[in-house]
Amino acid sequence: MTFETATSVTHKLWDRSTMHHELDALVHDLSVRHNTPKSNIAVHASGPSTFTLSLNHGEANLETVNL
Description:
Low-confidence stretches: 60-67
Strand order of the largest sheet: 1-2-4-3
Shape: globular
């Protein structure tokens, strides 16, 4: 399940074994669509197995999350 707006994507992950691959692909697609580096894409856990990716607009708020 995926919901897209002009500047964000919310995606429900059904298979935890593909989590890193799916999130990497979504970050890549959003960065290409907006012609911005991957470091300008923010990833937030927005629910159980649900992540929202959005443009970070250059705001430095980097965190490392171990899944």
